[in-house]
Structures are given as C-alpha cells and as structure tokens.
C-alpha cells in the first residue's frame, strides 16, 4: 500500500509533497522566472499541509491565493515587493495586509482531508518542474491554487476574521 502524505495524497516519483516542495524551492533559486510563483507555491503548500506552518498565518495565506486568482501573478509580485520593502529593517512599517481585506476569511473546520490536485501530481523531468516551459508551470500553479481554495471552501462558511 502506497504511503500517503498528510494532505491525503499518495507519494509521487520524487516522494511526498515535502520532497516536491523543497525541490521547487531549490529550483526557484536558480530560475528568476520560476521564482515569481514563490508566494503561490508557499501558500498552496502550507494550506495543503497546515501542520508544517503556523496556524495564525493560514487566513492570510488563504486570502493571498484568492488575491492571486483574482488579480494574477503580476499583482502578487507587486504586492510581495511592496511587503518586502515595508519589512526592510530601515523601514519601521509593518506588513500592509489591507489589499487582502476584501477576500473571504479562511473557513473553519479545516484542513480538508483531500485536494483534487497537489504537489505529488506535478510532472518532473529533464528541466525539473519547468520541463515544458514557464507558462505551463504557471498553469499548474494556478490549478494547485484553485484546488486548494476549492477544498477549503467546501468545508463550509468562513470563520470569523482573525486579527
């Protein structure tokens, strides 16, 4: 019987989701075009594997994915760059989460038991995760984000906004 990841997915050729995630993070360091998906990758991974992160951030990660699907990867990059600049040690400003305020809060009762697609479903080959181009990789990241949001939304109504 195949081992299952804590997200419910069976292991893939590279191993469990953590193996895929860590390989993606390593490949991003060598590929700036791939790195633009970093925030999406992190949010998807932690929402599919919340025991690997911090519960207090799940709501904002859920909102980040909604923001991404609503406004696109370029908007995510602009917001991420804005956050990084605000978090600079010379700047005394905190993160500005107001762009995420319009989005639904994380539903209560999670995490979902399964996701229709996860990291172990990603193809990997010569060229790593970019085996058939950055655009196709982007489509796969969008599919992961959609599957993650859908699984959480299917849990039921949103939880009260977390402060």
Structural key phrases:
163 residues; disordered C terminus; single chain; 6 helices; DUF5946; mainly alpha
Brief description of this entry?
This protein is mainly α and 163 residues long. 48% of the residues lie in helices and 0% in strands. The longest helix has 20 residues, at 134-153.
Structure, explained:
There is one protein chain. With 163 residues, the protein is an all-alpha fold. It has one domain (17-153). It contains six helices and no strands. α1 packs antiparallel against α3 and α4 (55-71) crosses α6 (134-153). The relative contact order is 0.19.
Number of strands: 0
Order of helical and strand elements:
HHHHHH
Name the helicity range. 40-55%
How large is the count of helical segments?
6
Distance between the termini: 43 Å
Indicate the low-confidence ranges by residue numbers: 158-163
Assess the beta-strand content as a share of residues. Answer: under 5%
Tally of separate domains: 1
Q: What is the radius of gyration computed over CA atoms, rounded to a whole number of angstroms?
A: 16 Å
Overall pLDDT metric = 88
For the sheet with most strands, the description reads: none
Instruction: Return the structural class.
Output: mainly alpha
Shape, principal axes of CA atoms: globular
């Amino acid at each position: 019987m195949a081992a299952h990841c804590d997200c419910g997915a069976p292991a893939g050729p590279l191993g469990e989701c953590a193996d895929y995630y860590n390989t993606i993070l390593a490949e991003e360091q060598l590929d700036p075009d791939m790195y633009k998906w970093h925030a999406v990758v992190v949010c998807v991974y932690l929402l599919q594997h919340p025991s690997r992160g911090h519960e207090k951030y799940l709501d904002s990660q859920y909102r980040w994915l909604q923001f991404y699907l609503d406004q696109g990867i370029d908007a995510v990059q602009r917001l991420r760059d804005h956050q990084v600049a605000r978090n600079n040690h010379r700047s005394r400003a905190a993160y500005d989460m107001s762009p995420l305020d319009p989005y639904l809060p994380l539903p209560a009762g999670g995490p979902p038991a399964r996701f229709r697609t996860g990291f172990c479903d990603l193809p990997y080959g010569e060229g790593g995760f970019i085996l058939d181009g950055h655009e196709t990789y982007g489509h796969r990241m969008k599919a992961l984000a959609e599957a993650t949001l859908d699984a959480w939304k299917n849990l039921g109504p949103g939880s009260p906004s977390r402060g």
